[in-house]
Amino acid sequence: MTDELRIASHKAFQRALTQTRADVEDRWREEPRNPAWPVVTRMLEAMAEQTDRHREPSLEERRANMLGPYVDRELEPPADDPSAALNQRLKALFLYFAVWPDDGVDPEEMSDEDLLERI
């Protein structure tokens, strides 16, 4: 994952989540018949609610959100497609949310052992 798509703090997560929610709404307007957009929107809304006002999402909440696998299965465009960046951002949000590391810790730099302890 490129550095621009990495999320390394709770504040960066919130910024990326806000921007991604707006981008997904735009895509839904562009593709109103695509059944994936309402599902993605609901998962992003759940992330927003579960992290509102600096709340740490519970392990159960984090495990219930399947945004990353869903994006892989339903929305994976070719690498040169402009929507590929949105999909990478969705997957970066999913990784950060699923692990929910201590603030300032980049999950991409965590050891496999540390990642497994968090999920």
Offer a concise description of the structure:
By secondary structure, this protein is mostly helical. The protein is built from six helices and no strands. The protein has one domain.
Please give the structural blueprint.
Elements: H1 10-30, H2 36-50, H3 59-64, H4 67-74, H5 84-99, H6 112-118
Helix pairs in contact: 1-2, 1-5, 2-4, 4-5
Tell me about this structure:
By secondary structure, the chain is mostly helical. It has one domain (3-118). 61% of the residues lie in helices and 0% in strands. It has 6 helices and no strands. It has helices at residues 10-30, 36-50, 59-64, 67-74, 84-99, 112-118. α1 (10-30) runs antiparallel to α2, α2 (36-50) packs antiparallel against α4 and α4 (67-74) packs antiparallel against α5 (84-99). The longest helix has 21 residues, at 10-30. The mean pLDDT is 89.
- Give me the secondary-structure category: mainly alpha
Global geometry: globular
Could you estimate the helical fraction of the residues in percent?
Answer: 55-70%
Helical element count? Answer: 6
Q: Strand count, sense and closure of the main sheet?
A: none
Distance between the termini: 20 Å
Sequence stretches where pLDDT stays below 50 over 5 or more residues: none
Number of strands: 0
Primary descriptors:
mainly alpha; 119 residues; globular
